[in-house]
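Table 4 source record.
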Amino acid sequence: SSGINAEWPLRPGTMADEFEVEVADSGAANYNPVQTSTMKKGSHIIIKGRPCKVDHISTSKPGKHGSAKCHIVACDIFTGKKNEEISPAHATVHSPHVKRKEYSLLDIENGFLSLLDDENETKDDIRIPEGDLGTKIQEMFDKELATIVTVLSSMGEEMVIEVKEETNTKS
């Protein structure tokens, strides 16, 4: 064998992810270490390997044996699923990098959106969302409206989260 370990990069949930920082394509880690006690409503946190937005946080007083604990309730930013985490207030949790980016809609083909960013780079790997949002995008596209979609990305996942009509078209 060539000495390359096929298990690398490690998948979230494997033992070594407590020590190794998983590296994204850009060469930068896709999260920051943050002290639990500094988290607040609206902060982003990784729970069970998923990027979540903090919905509620409560801190218990330190007991006779041990430190103050933070009880965090957070929702997955992609699925909306509620997750909970209990962590010592002084411990470190991971806050994922979350980016929002707007793209112009060029085309819809085979269920995928063809998008253009402000640097004229095209992006063709985002599926049209299901439900009302997808329907709205398709309707705006069919009416040939200049359409802007906002894509949320974190930890290698991307999803369209909103759509609006382009109002300041440059001619």
